[in-house]
Amino acid sequence: MPIKRFVNLSPTPAIPANDLKAAYLEIGHGPTLLMLHGFFGDAACWLPLIQKLKSHFRCISLDLIGFGESSKPMIRYDVAISVAFVRQFVEKLGIESCYILGHSFGGWVASAYALKYPNLTQGLILTAPAGIRDDSFADRHLNLRPLLWKTPLVDWALHLATPFAKMKGKRAEIEKIWWIRKSIVSQPVARSFLISRLRAKEVVDTVEKEIHKLRLPTLVIGGDRDKTIPVWHCQTFAREIPNAKLAIISGADHNLPDGYFREIADLIGKFMASQMPATADSRY
After folding, report:
1. Closest C-alpha to 112, from 197, 36, 6, 202
2. Comparing C-alpha atoms, which of 143, 202, 204 is closest to residue 173?
3. Who contacts 10 (Cβ-Cβ below 8 Å, separation ≥6)?
4. Is 132 in contact with 206 (CB distance < 8 Å)?
């Protein structure tokens, strides 16, 4: 496992937090590809893909604010906070412009960043990107609501339920619930956003009304079995962003970075070859 690096960032009006730090991985050589993970993830989720891309890209995978080993200040989290954090990090590393790869929540942050800093973004690769208003989200994830509660009664109830679930052959299901619960408790951004997604009337910071302004090379990748970010979200991004390319991976679920890194590497190779035909090698 590569060792994460850290840089200290300064407090700003957007992020009024002391001792602000960003954790990241940096592997490879070539054009800079900034990689942003999704909910419950961190920089390491991209490692399988990085192994495929490191000969072609300077891969910089960032723990977003509130995730992984980056700072988790007690502030109100929103997409603008994440964008401000990414901008500070990019400036700290002296990156003039870069391609941005984002998955799920990271795709939302990537597109919002590109909208704010189009001249500093060379292109976008969005895998199952969030950021499209979907009022059916609450209906699909009502079972998550108790896992968001801060009370220890939730953990007590899960402890009681675990042996019964295992006796009934539900070991995988109860282990997944425990994993979600622990991830929510340890990641304040995830909890903050899930709470707001479960109250659809409060979802005001989506990007679908703005992405038509983007004039950047864009590749959108989705999975046809993704129940977290349905295919129509990806289709919306591809339709609204002028000249965006859309690729749907057959049989793929939401776990694109880990489960479908080979397919993503191939798609990125072809996409980059179409942008730089004289220099790019699509054999990833």
Report:
1. 36
2. 143
3. 20, 88
4. yes
Type of residue found at 276: M
* Spatial contact of 49 and 265, defined as CB atoms under 8 Å apart: yes
What is the per-residue DSSP string for 10-77? Answer: ---SSS--SSEEEEEEEE--SSEEEEE--TT--GGGGHHHHHHHTTT-EEEEE--TTSTTS---SS--
Which of 49, 47, 46, 81 is CA-nearest to residue 64? 81
The answer to whether 63 and 43 have CB atoms below 8 angstroms apart is: yes
Return the pLDDT at 15.
Answer: 87
Q: Which of 225, 247, 250 is nearest to 234 (CA)?
A: 247
Task: Tell whether pTM > 0.70.
Answer: yes
Mean of per-residue pLDDT scores for the chain = 86
Q: Which two tokens stand for residue 191?
A: 């909890």
Which range scores top for mean pLDDT: 77-81, 106-110, 191-195?
A: 106-110
- State CA 108 to chain mean position distance: 7
Determine the straight-line distance between the first and last CA of the chain, rounded to whole angstroms: 21
How much is the average pLDDT of 222-242? 95
Backbone torsions φ then ψ of 168, nearest 5 degrees: -95, 15
Residues 6+ apart with CB under 8 A from 152: none
Task: Please state, in angstroms and rounded to a whole number, the distance separating the CA atoms of residues 110 and 207.
Answer: 11
> Is 128 within 8 Å of 256 (Cβ atoms)?
yes
